[in-house]
Design brief:
single chain, mainly alpha, 2 helices, 94% helix
Length: 103
């Protein structure tokens, strides 16, 4: 609140000194930029909890996706091994059954 109260005497002093147009434009531009900076800072402060929550949800979704991909990869590597074991078991059982019948 102190800065707002200091702006009025500053403006009165500037007008008493009769500054040229360029200097007034520069002061107005600086004041407008400062005002926008304050507004953007307030908006960022108010919205930061929501963005933090969305970032956390995005991170959790990415972790879940990576875990699903890892599990899929493990299943893909285990499937050919299990298929090979099943084929060996079938071949062995056929060989044993042939022997039993042959004797």
């Amino acid at each position: 609140m102190e800065t707002v109260q200091e702006l009025i005497p500053l403006a009165r002093e500037m007008m008493a000194q009769k500054p040229n147009r360029k200097l007034v434009k520069l002061y107005v531009l600086g004041s407008v930029l400062a005002f926008f900076g304050v507004v953007i800072g307030l908006v960022e402060t108010v919205c930061s909890p929501f963005t933090a929550a969305s970032r956390l949800r995005d991170r959790e979704a990415a972790v879940a996706e990576l875990q699903a991909a890892r599990e899929q990869k493990v299943l893909e590597t285990q499937a050919p091994l299990e298929k090979g074991k099943q084929q060996e078991a079938v071949l062995c059982s056929r060989a044993l059954s042939n022997r039993l019948h042959a004797s």
